[in-house]
Predict the structure.
Amino acid sequence: MKDSLSDDEDYYAKTNNGDTEKVLATVAATVFGFFKKHPIAIVYATGSTGSRTRLYQMGINKYYSEIEPDYHILGELDNRLERFIKDVKYKGFVIFKKDII
């Protein structure tokens, strides 16, 4: 969303327009499309706010069984990475394909 005064992107804007699932699907499709072009890449993801990071976590939780067979998912906690555990509140996420290591 654009800031109406500066015309810059406002990454903290809240639209509350009910498009959460669409946003999560777009993020997921973008990440998986990126891996198709860059199969040995490592992706770090975090939201611009704590609530957006929590939204990403909810998406990972919801689709974990579909993601986990092909990708390693790590959560950032206390400045370290650990294997992703559902319901642990992470600061960010690392994902990479299992077949690269």
